[in-house]
Amino acid sequence: MRHLYLIFSLLLLAACSSAHVDTDYDRGVNFSQIKTYNYFSDIDWNGVNQLDQTRIVRAIDQELKAKSWQKSDHPQVLIDIKPSEQVVTNTNTVGIGTGSYGGGFGTSMQVGIPIKTKKLQKDLVIEMLDATNQHLIWQGVFSKEFSTRADSEKIIQSAIQDLFKKFPPKK
């Protein structure tokens, strides 16, 4: 019974949604030479409200400022932000069974009960493009499922920190 409890606990932990963070960059770019940035003027916010737009930009500004980058009207890098969110429905079943055995005769019955869960999946893609030729030089992708509408400010701050944890890339 103890082993069953341990296995169930491990499965429950494995089922918990963790954030997926992935970054990629152009290895030919010397990021130590880049110190200025700005944002594309036509970012498609894809339905993200004004408060969250401001939070995303503020969090990126804070991370880049900590790395000695400055916002400029004549930037070396332009930043594009591509947020999205969607409702994801997962369907699992739980089996409940009964049975009996006696005198060489056995009976059993089992019923599968469907359990549907809806989660909100939030994705945030941040791209940095060389301002002179519009070539992609860095991309960060954050994706996570939430069971409820969690605190947007904390989610955004955490997502941006995770994305910029290893930025700028080192050769």
UniProtKB/TrEMBL annotation:
Residues 1-21 form the signal peptide. PROSITE patterns: PROKAR_LIPOPROTEIN (PS51257). It comes from the Bacteria. InterPro entries: DUF4136. Residues 21-169 form the DUF4136 domain. Coiled coil: none annotated. Keywords: Signal. Gene3D superfamilies: 3.30.160.670. This is DUF4136 domain-containing protein.
